[in-house]
TrEMBL record:
The keyword Cytoplasm applies. This is Shikimate kinase. Its EC number is 2.7.1.71. It comes from Sphingomonas xanthus. It is found in: Cytoplasm. It is an enzyme of class 2 (transferase). The gene is aroK.
Length: 179
């Protein structure tokens, strides 16, 4: 793993719908690679002194995304690390362009049933609070799929164990960096 870490010259950024495993897989990937891990939602919460959900509801999605974009821009400028983004971060065209220029972007793509089950464990997702969880996730997947498809690496998780997803990402990174 030392060899892979030595050739990484930019952060690895995980994108995808809420519940795809970006935070959990990101922590494990960072540990596997010996890199620091940062969760952009946790950074937003620390900066705002409130939960990301509260910031989203208080200021609205447009202001939330603008603040998220500025935060993500700061995160990719730092050390090489693994960064988990919020589910909507990659939808913003400026954020998507910035990440694809200055990071290795990885789309974690999980089936709707897996996303619905995982997001049902906690009520911290403002976009899922009003309606059928699976229907909302299906709509968001349809709306966002073309944006996520612009990520440099696509990993279909199919509800796989997080350790297996980490290994898929490591293999994809090795393929990409050995071209």
């Amino acid at each position: 793993m030392q060899q892979l870490r030595d050739v990484l010259d930019r952060p690895i950024v995980l994108v995808g719908l809420m519940g795809a495993g970006k935070s959990t897989v990101g922590r494990r990937l960072a540990r596997r690679l010996g890199l620091p891990f940062v969760d952009s939602d946790a950074e937003i919460e620390e900066a705002a002194g409130a939960s990301a959900a509260d910031v989203f509801e208080l200021f609205g999605e447009a202001d939330f995304r603008d603040g998220e974009r500025r935060l993500v821009a700061r995160l990719v400028e730092g050390d090489v690390r693994v960064i988990a983004t919020g589910g909507g971060a990659f939808v913003d065209p400026r954020t998507r362009q910035l990440l694809n220029e200055r990071a290795i972007t990885v789309w974690l793509d999980a089936p709707i049933a897996v996303l619905a089950e995982r997001t049902g464990r906690r009520d911290t997702r403002p976009l899922l609070r009003s309606g059928d969880r699976a229907a909302i996730l299906t709509r968001l997947a349809d709306e966002r799929r073309s944006f996520y498809a612009e990520a440099q690496i696509h990993v279909r998780t199919c509800g796989s164990a997080h350790a297996d997803v980490v290994e898929q990402i490591v293999a994809a990174l090795q393929d990409r960096l050995n071209r």
